[in-house]
Design brief:
The chain is of the alpha/beta class and about 650 residues long. The chain folds into four domains: about 220 residues, L-fuculose-1-phosphate Aldolase (3-Layer(aba) Sandwich), CATH 3.40.225.10; about 160 residues, L-fuculose-1-phosphate Aldolase (3-Layer(aba) Sandwich), CATH 3.40.225; about 200 residues, Rossmann fold (3-Layer(aba) Sandwich), CATH 3.40.50; about 35 residues. It has 25 helices and 19 strands. It has an eight-stranded mixed sheet, sandwiched between helices. Strands 3-2-1-4-7-6-5 form a seven-stranded mixed sheet, sandwiched between helices.
Length: about 650
């Protein structure tokens, strides 16, 4: 464990104690061995003059749900220190009353709700206080003789705090055990099976004590065989049968959770090594690193032995709930992560952010399991204590802040021909509605144009079918499955009457505008069958219903794609896969239609460009965004009962109608 304190960097925050608190908090938050995704909390006590001129002591404590890695001054809640201390002296205090009174004691009503550990920070006397769930300390305290190990490492430099429920009860326990403490001689508090507090008169002192104490725990584990060398390692590659199994697991988890769910498979050497250990099932059945993780990961992962594993987990979770509940409303029974024997570790989340958080926690968990086991044995809190945290109202409140999910949240989509025009608009619109989207195109620009969290461009020639198949498999490997296919790629070959048709022209149009669509569908079908409300949407053309002379190679290919959709709809309906096609017309905001091309076309008809762009019954311009919104609607619940449909987006065409 290395200190990253920099005097030059700290100087930029040295205007006041709160700014230095921000600096050192970020140092803690950016080290995943100390803090993961919103975990931990920090505080500073300052003397401050209120708006009315009253000089008081104020506790600036991290706001509930804040992230230390990115926190600013506005992420701290200013609480009257005297009030927090008096709350800590009460004989009892409900969670609801604690939150209300702490908020009432805030100097700024616009600040976030104070951390659930606010009273704990108040009763720890020094100016700066840091709290983390450092992996090494948690491993140390979860050894079978954890308390003895802590004493062997730290001696009398720390006070050992037995496990107790965080918040008010922890504050009471710490106040009791530190009542006669000499804070100048102490370096920290070690909370058994929970974490660590350090403190100091300066931000640097408190931070560097954290680094020192955690480093000593790391050294102890290393001396007992519990260093990184304890991580098992193995090499594994997921084959097509594995990918189909992964998609099935993802679907089963989503059904238990009642919503589309992403699945992130970690098949790294460390994850595969852990999943290949003879004792992996036993280790993963003992409990989380720290109780705080249960609100993200639940108490246990699922052991993915076969197709019935997820349902068996749900039954076990129901038993766990019934054995421990005291009137709480049951959460869903879906696991949040899994150990996949011989393959690796899988994390399940409702969206990209949640999946990433769970994956990070799972990664630290299975690594720390092994270190603790090697150093003497991995133990964890009992089910009752963990249930109390998982169903603790104050913790659950953190997870409810996300609001209503986007329409396509948790879904995975592939869009072909996504570098420009209609395809790009479709990819961006699906992404805006919550889907994780992969846009495929031959144009290398697709990687720059589709570049955002959950939106990625992939260069692939859709007529090179081995490459397309490998791309689809890689997407499933990364997200666990597929729910939406938008087959849009196409070319408009040079116009010619059949009498003068170049066979190469015809063959190229059939290959790109028809066969490549069939092959892409073929590669996607096994995964769509295991998707969430799965759908395949093809982009056709007005030419199908109202062709024009000289466009035979294009029109015939599009007509054949329409027939492909009709047959696919018949074939896939029993599997719950909807297959529909959209027929746009006169979409001119694409790279194909330059201003010069529009002017030439309009001149042929003797009309203005604006008149040319609105040559439909409704006299309206059709844009890529209009087509994209229709595709997005077709991918969503509005079309949940529709398959085999052909939808025009053309402003009304008298020949079609």
């Amino acid at each position: 464990m290395t200190s990253h304190w920099s005097d030059s960097d700290a100087a930029e925050f040295s205007t006041n104690a709160l700014n230095l608190r921000v600096y050192s908090s970020r140092l803690l938050g950016r080290d995943p061995q100390l803090v993961l995704h919103g975990g931990g909390n920090t505080s500073v006590k300052v003397r401050q003059t209120t708006f009315l001129g009253e000089e008081i002591d104020v506790l600036y404590v991290k706001g509930s749900g804040g992230d230390l890695a990115t926190i600013g001054t506005d992420g701290f809640s200013p609480v009257r220190l005297e009030t927090a201390l008096r709350l800590g002296e009460m004989a009892s205090l409900s969670d609801t009353d604690m939150v209300r009174e702490l908020r009432a004691a805030m100097l700024n009503p616009d600040a976030p709700t104070p951390s659930i550990e606010a009273i704990v920070h108040a009763v720890i006397a020094p100016k700066f206080v840091d709290h983390t769930h450092a992996n090494a300390v948690v491993a140390l305290t979860n050894l079978p003789q954890g308390e003895a190990a802590v004493r062997a490492v730290y001696g009398d430099r720390v006070i050992i705090i037995p496990y107790v429920m965080p918040g008010f009860l922890l504050a009471k326990m710490i106040a009791k055990l530190t009542a006669n403490a000499n804070w100048n001689e102490l370096e920290g508090l070690i909370l058994l099976q929970h974490g660590i507090f350090t403190f100091g008169s300066t931000a640097r002192e408190s931070y560097e004590r954290m680094i020192k104490l955690v480093g000593e725990a790391e050294a102890y584990l290393e001396s007992k065989g519990g260093g990184e060398s304890a991580w098992a390692r193995a090499e594994v590659h997921l084959e097509p049968d594995d990918l189909r199994a992964l998609a099935g697991y993802r679907q089963a988890v989503g059904k238990q959770r009642g919503r589309a769910t992403l699945a992130k498979a970690d098949c790294s050497p460390e994850a595969a090594g852990f999943a290949s250990r003879a004792d992996a099932k036993d280790l993963s059945s003992r409990g989380p690193l720290t109780p705080d993780h249960t609100i993200r990961t639940k108490r246990l992962p699922v052991w993915l032995e076969d197709a019935g594993s997820v349902n068996a987990y749900a039954e076990s979770y129901e038993q766990y709930f019934q054995a421990n509940q005291k009137g709480e409303t049951k959460l869903d029974s879906a696991p949040r992560w899994a150990v996949w024997p011989g393959k690796g570790v899988v994390s399940f989340g409702a969206n990209r952010t949640e999946t990433g958080i769970i994956s990070d926690i799972a990664g630290h968990t299975f690594r720390t399991y092994q270190q603790a086991e090697a150093a003497g044995g991995w133990t964890a809190l009992g089910a009752g204590d963990l249930f109390a945290i998982e169903y603790w109202e104050l913790e659950q409140a953190k997870l409810r802040k996300s609001g209503k999910p986007a329409m396509l949240e948790g879904k995975v989509a592939i869009v072909s021909g996504a570098a420009a025009g209609i395809g790009r608009a479709i990819a961006e619109t699906l992404h805006a509605h919550g889907a994780t989207v992969f846009g495929l195109d031959l144009n290398p620009a697709v990687t720059e144009r589709l570049q955002a969290p959950g939106l990625e461009g992939i260069v692939v020639n859709l007529t090179q079918y081995d490459a397309v198949k490998a791309t689809v498999e890689d997407i499933v490997r990364r997200c666990g499955g597929l729910d939406i296919l938008v087959s849009n790629a196409g070319i408009f070959t040079a116009g010619a009457n059949f009498e003068d048709m170049d066979p190469v022209n015809w063959a190229k149009s059939m290959e790109v505008n028809l066969t490549s669509h069939m092959r892409l569908l073929q590669f996607c079908v096994p995964y769509l069958k295991m998707g969430f409300d799965p759908t395949a949407i093809f982009v056709g053309s007005r030419n199908v219903a109202a062709p024009g002379a000289g466009a035979g190679s294009y029109s015939c290919a599009k007509a054949a794609v329409t027939q492909l959709v009709r047959v696919a709809a018949l074939e896939l309906a029993p599997n719950g896969v909807r297959v529909n096609i959209i027929h746009p017309d006169a979409v001119f905001d694409t790279e194909l239609w330059t201003s010069e091309a529009l002017e030439r076309s309009a001149a042929r008809y003797g009309i203005t460009v604006e008149e040319y762009k609105t040559r439909n019954l409704m006299k309206t311009e059709i844009k890529s965004a209009n087509v994209a919104e229709m595709v997005c609607t077709m991918a969503g619940p509005a079309f949940a009962k529709t398959t085999g449909a052909q939808i025009p987006v053309d402003g009304g065409n008298d020949r079609v109608i």
